[in-house]
Design goal:
- By secondary structure, the chain is an alpha/beta fold.
- It has one domain (about 5-155): 3-Layer(aba) Sandwich (Rossmann fold), CATH 3.40.50.
- Helix content is about 35%, strand content about 25%.
- It contains five helices and nine strands, in the order βαβαββαβαββββα.
- The strands form two sheets. It has a seven-stranded parallel sheet, with helices on both faces. Strands 7-8 form a two-stranded antiparallel sheet.
- α4 (about 105-120) links the parallel β5 (about 100-105) and β6.
- α1 (about 20-35) runs parallel beside α2 (about 45-55) and α3 packs across α4.
- The mean pLDDT is about 95.
Length: about 160
């Protein structure tokens, strides 16, 4: 039986700056305080920092892993999902979530943003990719001021 907890992904690079990691940890803490389940790619960088923050507040963390072993998960992933499908797991991260908070990131993060938007899942930005089409800004990705703002926006935009 499903409970009413929201599943919110935190996405970003496995290589990230100290500032981005601090922000991700704050997002993880805020998600846990609000009772959300954190979904991520399960590895290091932004993913590990967000999970660390969530775990510090007693939150639940799920890591959708690209490889063949649950041992590749960061130390703060409580439920490792082993896929063996490499970057294709980005689809699972996005589609398993009701909202996505993107922090920094590289092309893998961009793919997750694209999968989320393609499926009507709101994407909140904390210093991640901005989009444009034919020279015009695409406002699909919602900017946030800080971690608490990002989590509030995510909750506001979850429709199910």
């Amino acid at each position: 039986m499903m409970d009413n907890r929201k599943l919110i992904a935190v996405i970003g690079g496995s290589r990230s700056s100290a500032k981005e990691n601090k922000l991700a940890e704050e997002v993880g803490r805020e998600l846990a305080k609000r009772g959300a389940v954190l979904v991520c790619g399960g590895l290091g960088g932004i993913m590990e920092s967000a999970c660390r923050g969530a775990a510090s507040e007693g939150g639940l963390t799920i890591g959708i892993l690209p490889g063949e072993s649950r041992r590749e998960a960061n130390d703060y992933v409580q439920i490792p999902i082993v896929t063996g499908i490499g970057y294709a797991r980005n689809v699972v991260v996005a589609k398993s979530s009701q909202a996505v908070i993107a922090i920094g990131g590289s092309y893998g993060t961009l793919t997750e943003i694209g999968y989320a938007l393609q499926n009507g899942i709101p994407v909140i930005s904390l210093g991640t990719w901005s989009l444009s089409r034919n020279g015009k800004t695409d406002k699909s990705v919602i900017p946030a001021k800080d971690a608490a703002d990002a989590v509030s926006i995510a909750f506001e935009h979850i429709s199910e």
